[in-house]
């Protein structure tokens, strides 16, 4: 549990929850309440669920009440320790953890009877008494804004050189280069270094090796070529390793895959228009599979014979054709999660109102698809309309916040619910003047915890931030 707490302090927890430690320590001879590290018994710990609006004081009161309600004390010779630490939060650049997390961890060491470089002068006692659920914005933002300013100054020149180098690679070598994780979020300096390594690897190849027309992505964990013909290079590979991999790539096969992908995209658009649907698509890695291309041809023939579904009433409805491996899981989830049970599926097709699309297996026929669209399409479109209305309201609220707080841009963590995002925006409007004086026009993202983005260009603020 300690490892988990420290890891969450480094990366930021997915869901910020307080950590409750409950364990027993062997008391020293003479009844002293202190203990050394070697005498501690095995401990058990667990995370406590905390609601979005639960304050630290409420959590502490609940823990104290639970402790007071115990009918018996600890076993003889043991000392009971019950300690609730606030959710771990990321520190400012150059710090392993934030100030509040540092103090909280120090209080845990103090409770163990161990010396702590952070506990002292009453700091451990203060931590035990509890701190704010999240790092105070007044404490966090000045350091974060300064870090973003410094990083922007370092990156400005690199960004221009990176753009120039990518253009030169595309024009001179006819090679398209991009970045996948973790390189895509590593910032311009890291990407420039990687792109320079790629140029050096390409320049070291003999003239007989033609890589023109290829798409190279630097990211992932290993070298390889994906189903769409994209060449992947691991970021930690050396120039020599990259050159060796590029030399062994079947460039003709890659170019064929890339050309076929363009043909499939054109075919998808034509089939959607013929069926009277918004779009037809599948999972990226399955788009070149023979079964999917056969499904497109089959539906194109049916549309030519029968015309658009519903006389063209569903021109905004997306159709997702699912490969065989994904059909069973998505259909079962559609049955279990749909508001009307098994009626969400018709002829093997499922209405996904959350995603706003109709799902169908690649084996679907016109006899199955046309009735499914007629029966399920209106439900999907209604859900999509409601979602667009919510998104429009949130977008208008976001624009208000950007203008009032004078932010360069305001982003949102995709994992954040609409309710939490809206709650944060409304609170930001209410404190616009104070936030403007702290943020100084930076780019901000509403997230679960305070912190900086991986490339140090965006400041994350917790949706339930405290001033």
TrEMBL record:
Residue numbers spanned by region Disordered: 30-100, 313-347
Annotated Low complexity bias: 30-69, 328-343
InterPro entries to which the protein is assigned, alphabetical: DUF4461 (IPR027989), TCAIM (IPR027986)
Residues of the DUF4461 domain: 137-466
GO cellular component: mitochondrion
Top-level taxon in the UniProt lineage: Eukaryota
TM region positions: none
Designated name of the protein: DUF4461 domain-containing protein
Species for this entry: Micractinium conductrix
Lineage: Eukaryota, Viridiplantae, Chlorophyta, core chlorophytes, Trebouxiophyceae
């Amino acid at each position: 549990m300690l490892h988990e707490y420290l890891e969450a302090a480094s990366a930021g927890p997915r869901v910020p929850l307080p950590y409750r430690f409950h364990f027993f320590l062997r008391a020293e001879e003479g009844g002293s309440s202190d203990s050394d590290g070697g005498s501690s018994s095995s401990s058990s710990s667990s995370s406590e669920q905390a609601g979005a609006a639960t304050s630290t004081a409420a959590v502490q009161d609940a823990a104290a009440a639970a402790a007071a309600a115990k009918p018996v004390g600890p076993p003889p010779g043991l000392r009971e320790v019950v300690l609730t630490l606030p959710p771990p939060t990321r520190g400012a650049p150059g710090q392993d953890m934030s100030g509040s997390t540092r103090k909280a961890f120090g209080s845990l060491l103090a409770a163990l009877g161990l010396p702590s470089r952070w506990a002292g002068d009453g700091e451990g006692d203060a931590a035990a008494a509890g701190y704010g659920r999240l790092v105070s914005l007044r404490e966090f933002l000045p350091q974060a804004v300064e870090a973003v300013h410094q990083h922007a100054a370092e990156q400005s020149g690199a960004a221009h050189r990176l753009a120039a180098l990518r253009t030169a690679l595309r024009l001179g070598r006819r090679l398209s280069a991009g970045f996948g994780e973790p390189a895509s979020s590593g910032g311009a300096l890291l990407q420039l270094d990687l792109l320079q390594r790629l140029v050096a690897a390409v320049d070291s190849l003999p003239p007989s090796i033609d890589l023109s027309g290829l798409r190279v992505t630097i990211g992932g964990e290993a070298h390889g070529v994906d189903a769409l013909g994209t060449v992947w290079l691991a970021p930690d590979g050396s120039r020599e390793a990259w050159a060796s991999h590029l030399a062994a790539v079947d460039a003709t096969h890659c170019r064929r895959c890339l050309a076929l992908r363009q043909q499939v995209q054109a075919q998808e658009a034509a089939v959607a228009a013929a069926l009277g649907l918004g779009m037809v698509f599948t999972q990226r890695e399955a788009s070149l599979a023979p079964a999917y291309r056969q499904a497109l041809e089959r539906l194109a023939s049916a549309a030519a014979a029968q015309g658009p579904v519903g006389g063209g009433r569903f021109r905004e409805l997306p159709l997702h054709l699912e490969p065989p491996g994904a059909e069973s899981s998505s259909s079962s989830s559609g049955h279990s999660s749909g508001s009307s049970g098994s009626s969400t599926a018709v002829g093997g097709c499922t209405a996904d109102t959350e995603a706003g699309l109709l799902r169908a297996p690649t084996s679907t026929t016109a006899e199955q698809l046309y009735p499914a669209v007629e029966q399920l399409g209106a439900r999907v479109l209604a859900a999509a309309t409601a979602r667009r209305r919510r998104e429009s309201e949130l977008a208008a609220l976001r624009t208000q916040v950007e203008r009032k707080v004078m932010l360069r841009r305001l982003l949102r963590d995709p994992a954040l619910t609409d309710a939490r995002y809206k709650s944060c925006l409304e609170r930001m409007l209410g404190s616009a003047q104070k936030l403007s004086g702290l943020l100084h026009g930076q780019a901000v993202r509403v997230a679960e915890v305070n912190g900086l983005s991986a490339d140090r260009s965006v400041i994350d603020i917790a949706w339930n931030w405290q001033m």
